[in-house]
Amino acid sequence: MYRTHTCGELIISNKGEKVTLAGWVQRLREFGGMTFIDLRDRYGITQLVFNMEADADLCMQARKLGREFVIQVTGTVAERSNKNPKMPTGDIEIIAENITVLNSSDIPPFTIEENSDGGDELRMKYRYLDLRRQNVRSNIILRHRMAQEVRKYLDGEGFIEVETPVLIKSTPEGARDFVVPSRLHHGEFYALPQSPQTFKQLLMVAGFDKYFQIVKCFRDEDLRADRQPEFTQIDCEMSFIHQDDILNTFEGLARHLFRQIKGITFSDSFPRMPYDEAMSRYGTDKPDIRFGMCITEMTRKVQGRSFPLFDSAEYVGAICAAGCGAYTRKQLDELTEYVKRPQIGAKGLVYVRIEADGTAKSSVDKFYPPDVLKSFAVITGAGAGDLILMIAGERNHTLNALGELRLEMGKRMGLRDPSVYAPLWVVDFPLLEWDEETKRFYAKHHPFTAPKPEDLEYMISDPGRVHANAYDLVINGTEIGGGSIRIHDGDIQSLMFKTLGFTEEEARHQFGFLLNAFRFGAPPHGGIAFGFDRWAAILGGSDTIRDFIAFPKNNQARDVMIDTPSTIKKEQLDELGIAIKWIENQ
Ligand code: ASP
User: Fold this and answer.
1) pLDDT-above-90 percentage for the chain
2) Is residue 179 packed enough to be buried (19+ CB in 10 Å), middle (13-18) or exposed (0-12)?
3) How would residue 586 be classed by pLDDT, with cut points 50, 70 and 90?
4) Which of 230, 233, 253 to mutate to test the pocket of ligand 1 (most atoms within 8 A of CB)?
5) Residue 27's closest CA among 15, 36, 18?
6) Which CATH number among 3.40.1400.10, 3.30.930.10, 1.10.8.420, 3.30.750.24 corresponds to the domain 138-272+424-548?
7) Is 195 in the pocket of ligand 1 (CB under 6 A)?
8) 257 C-alpha to center of ligand 1: Å?
């Protein structure tokens, strides 16, 4: 046997036992005649002791060990005089009697401890060393546990895990595809799946009834912060269901994961908020409902008093920051700068503070006499010591800006407690989204999403007002999953393609296989997909999905460890029938 125990399990009750451990030398310290080594493996760290007086040869041998050497050690478990209550093994140490060097190591490029001195790029380049760090490893183990729990729950609910192909034809999620050239068919390409969307629907046509898969998806998008070109989804589909069945089943999954992984039980069912309400009260389709501070529309209240910014605006809205009435000029200027940043793009910020005596002071006193300002307080629910913040402009844009401001104030006021989880369903999304640039509608979700039956009549006359049977699961302001009831009726599908500006031919070319399948008895069906990396990050208490992916890409979509993307040999290109067209400045 290589080892009798791991480095994470010996405690005081093992005192006096003769044991053998194996692992990596994390740290070596010399104290007079004593040498201490922290020996690390996946399970923890155990202290080894070498005493010059007792065995000079062994102690000299130990002193020659370098960081990250792999050793096997035999010794006796002893009680430590200097206990470390922070370590599970902190009550004991091993009085070493024999060591074998299993392998030496180069000096690692950064310290492999909880707090590393390695920068991001360096740690990614040597990710296998980074993964030796306990905190990084525990993220990957959390992900593993989640995957097991997802399988356990869904299997228990009768779902069947089916693998779908990776070399496919373009899918309908709307991002750019990664493509793979075909050697056997020059000039032809596979696409990597943006999701298994069409396959899971085909599995419903095939009668599988309940499907899931923990699956890699690929989207060649411009990288915003914390996006990965390849990511993992928990992908699911069900037949003979209504929207409620899906929400209930997957609320069950969310509850199961929170219970098993975090020990959290939610007493109430998750709120279900229509998209329109999320937008008008929170300025976003992924509201953080850990706190209130909802948006109040003020348009009619503020107009007609000769304040040009408000009078010319399509929409004026406000939030009330409780207890922030004492904000200084400097703090208010900071907030104004915050909402004027290009990403938010508000024209300005108007404030009204409610003083301790109930009088109102505002940056627009000139236009609004005290009694009018007081009426603002009534509408927004502001009381003594509170601060009303107002933004004006185009409706959606202004709501978004107020939503961002609300989050910023929530952060400043400590209302976004990371130990609190507030899940909700956002439902009734619009079916379509108008794009000003190309002057056409796009599917908000994807083209197989079913319109609400009661809105069908507007599909031609006023497509923008059609709502969909589509839903998102949102936790603490982050969308972690979304899906929809699908169209299973050929006529409605044709209508949808028409509204999206597809000719019949284009629809056939791209999705003919699915449309064909639907002619052979497609059951009513619907599904959902969750961002597995994101969900792991949330349960792990982090904002960064990269921390929960064993081998992630950096924010330029590069894997700096294996150094890819990279060029390929001329022979490979020739075999593929591909010539590279170099474009200057690219
Ligand atoms: N395929 C969708 C996505 O990846 C989810 C779904 O509709 O099930 O976003």
Assistant:
1) 89
2) middle
3) low
4) 233
5) 36
6) 3.30.930.10
7) yes
8) 20
Confidence (pTM):
0.93
Alpha-carbon distance 346 to 272, whole Å? Answer: 30
pLDDT value at 194 more than 90: yes
Best substitution site from 171, 210, 211, 235 to test ligand 1's pocket, by max atoms within 8 Å of Cβ?
A: 235
CATH annotation of 12-103:
2.40.50.140
Instruction: Give residue 356's pLDDT.
Output: 87
Residue 527 near ligand 1, beta carbon < 6 Å: yes
pLDDT score of 491: 87
Q: Which residues of 349-387 are buried (b: 16+ CB within 10 A; e: fewer)?
A: bbbbbbeeeeebebebeebbeeeebbebbeebebeeebb
Evaluate if residue 173 carries a pLDDT over 90. no
Q: Which atom of ligand 1 is nearest to the CA of 200?
A: 8
User: For 498-522, how does the pLDDT look when each residue is reduced to its tens digit (9 = 90+)?
Assistant: 999 888 898 888 888 999 999 999 9
Residue with CA closest to ligand 1 atom 6: 483
Q: Judging by DSSP bridges, how do beta strands 423-427 and 272-274 pair with one another?
A: parallel
Strand 210-218 vs strand 230-239: parallel, antiparallel, or unpaired? antiparallel
Confidence tier at 543 by pLDDT (50, 70, 90): confident
Confirm or reject: Cβ of 483 under 6 Å from ligand 1. yes
Pocket test for ligand 1, best of 164, 173, 192, 197 (most atoms within 8 A of CB): 197
Binding site membership of 484 for ligand 1 (Cβ less than 6 Å):
yes
Calculate what percentage of the chain has a pLDDT beyond 70: 100
Q: pLDDT band at 17, cuts 50/70/90?
A: very high
Angle at which helices 329-340 and 395-412 pack, to 10 degrees? 140
Considering the chain, tell me which residue range(s) the CATH 3.30.1360.30 domain(s) occupy. 291-416
Q: Which ligand 1 atom sits nearest the alpha carbon of residue 235? A: 8
Region(s) of the chain under CATH 3.30.930.10? 138-272+424-548
> In this predicted structure, what is the pLDDT of residue 65?
98
Q: Where in the chain is the domain with CATH 2.40.50.140?
A: 12-103
Q: What is the pLDDT of residues 258-307, one digit of tens each?
A: 999 999 999 999 999 999 999 999 999 999 999 999 999 999 999 999 99
CATH of 291-416 given 3.30.1360.30, 3.40.470.10, 3.40.718.10, 3.20.20.150: 3.30.1360.30
Element (H, E) at 50: strand 44-51
Name the residue at shortest CA distance from atom 1 of ligand 1: 197
Give the atom of ligand 1 at the shortest distance from the alpha carbon of 196. Answer: 1
User: Which residue spans within 431-469 are E strands per DSSP?
Assistant: 432-435, 440-443
CA–centroid distance, residue 259 to ligand 1 (Å):
25
482 CA to middle of ligand 1, Å? Answer: 6
- CA-closest residue to ligand 1 atom 7: 483
pLDDT, tens digit, for every residue of 302-321? 999 999 999 999 999 999 99
What are the CA-CA distances from residue 291 to residues 113, 411, 422, 467 (Å)?
37, 10, 9, 27
Site of tokens 């067209």: 581
